[in-house]
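User: I'm curious whether this sequence folds into something compact or stays loose and floppy. Could you predict its structure so I can see for myself?
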Amino acid sequence: MIRLLEFCHVSTQLPWWGSIILLTVILRVALFPLMLKTTRNISVLPYIADKQKALMEETKKARLSGELVEMRKATMKLLALYKQWGYSPFMSFWGILQIPIFFAVFRTCSRCSNLPVPGWETGGTAWFMDLTVIDPYFILPTISGVTTAVTIWVCPPNCGDMG
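Assistant: Here's the prediction. I'll summarize afterward.
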């Protein structure tokens, strides 16, 4: 991630704060199709929840009775339901991919502020000119918290639930 940030800085000649923003935007755009697929996948759940629950119950009964053929039939019905709606129970795990990526960006900025990176002391803007020190007014953490809250408010975990 450090190399990507440095590449953005050197190739665009942007100040460090601009390079950080550019790298973040590039990563968000690159991850957008995956996040869109994940969101679409999750939004299907409310529409298939009742049928899914019934088929899972049928599978559980077959498993408890020890009837492998019935269990396989029930499982195949559940898989057919998923296929009909284009749902994948594992697709949601891909949404977690953004956590280590943006954690790496955070760690990169943190490490760069502790290393002797040329221009890091003067590579900021507005009230945070020195990127090696903590935001004295806590404006950046506040912006981060507000944007996260707005994202959750606009599309809460059950935003796909239409009924």
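Summary: Helices lie at 2-12, 16-65, 68-85, 98-114, 139-154. The chain is about 70% helix and 0% strand.
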